[in-house]
């Protein structure tokens, strides 16, 4: 009778002969104080480290209590370390005048490090659209190369569509919204800054991302001159002209020079006050015409009065 292979996995010798305390000590052995000068930032790190009020509070906290949660680094072949998570803690230590950063040293591949870096930074309270854009792009590229790595173990490579859905379920964003964020990475810096500042909304920004660099810079020039940003409708037409090979500097100027509905001056009249000055015989749907004619008569009266006074 053929022997049946058991699914039971024998514990390792380490599991059999090491206590929980010893295993915790082994984990702690990976945590050490590393000279900051030996720690390199993550390549093309998409999240900005700002010397703002929150940073100053972190600096004071580190001065008083040290780094409570160790940063995560991975060893490099040249004896240096690459920072995976903890860029704000590293900067705070520098501002606090410290020479070392408390770190956990973890062996990670490039894609594993990328995924962990993005996940750890998404815990921030405030994330700019540009930060999300490049973080999503880096994360998707890593996922597309090796598949989803929720526990840093390999799984089969997923399609680009499936990766978008997976990332969407993890972040709470729709697949379409993630696509929009990634499109922002095709914007020139000036336009991307306008998105971060809230001057350009997401949908117009996405349409502009399909223009080439020269056309985008023409848009930047028009914004700087007029201090007005394009509407969604205007960016749709710019993209259409671009796809047809007809988007020139002059066309951009013409489109940007149009008066937008939200820029038109609005006059608000109280209905109850206006209505009491209009005869009841005038139907409600003729109120505007009646008011305009009354204003024309008043303007003519004022003109004649001015001419008479000038004599």
Secondary structure elements and pairings:
Blueprint lengths: L12 H5 L2 H9 L2 E5 L3 E2 L12 H13 L5 E5 L5 E5 L1 H9 L4 E6 L4 H12 L7 H18 L13 H12 L3 H9 L5 H9 L4 H7 L4 H14 L5 H12 L5 H8 L14 H5 L11 H24 L1
Parallel strand pairs: 2-4, 3-5
Antiparallel strand pairs: 1-5, 3-4
User: H/E series, N to C?
Assistant: HHEEHEEHEHHHHHHHHHHH
Return the CATH architecture of the largest domain: Alpha-Beta Complex
- Helix count from the secondary structure assignment: 15
Output the CATH class name of the largest domain: Alpha Beta
CATH fold description of the largest domain: Conserved hypothetical protein from pyrococcus furiosus pfu- 392566-001, ParB domain
**Could you tell me the number of beta strands?**
5
Quick one: overall form? Answer: elongated
- The percentage helix is 40-55%
Please mark out the parts with pLDDT under 50 across 5 or more consecutive residues, or reply none.
1-9, 148-159
Strand percent estimate: 5-15%
Query: SS-based structural class?
Result: alpha/beta
CA distance, first residue to last residue: 128 Å
The residue-averaged pLDDT reads 80
Enumerate the strands of the largest sheet in spatial order, edge to edge or round the barrel: 1-5-3-4-2
Largest sheet: 5 strands, mixed
Question: Could you explain the architecture of this structure?
Answer:
By secondary structure, this protein is an alpha/beta fold. It has three domains: 24-107, Conserved hypothetical protein from pyrococcus furiosus pfu- 392566-001, ParB domain, CATH 3.90.1530; 109-184, no CATH class; 187-261, no CATH class. Helix content is 53%, strand content 7%. The protein has helices at residues 13-17, 20-28, 53-65, 87-95, 110-121, 129-146, 160-171, 175-183, 189-197, 202-208, 213-226, 232-243, 249-256, 271-275, 287-310, and strands at 31-35, 39-40, 71-75, 81-85, 100-105. The chain has a five-stranded mixed beta sheet. A hairpin with a 5-residue loop joins strand 3 and strand 4. The N and C termini lie far apart (128 Å). 23% of the residues are buried.
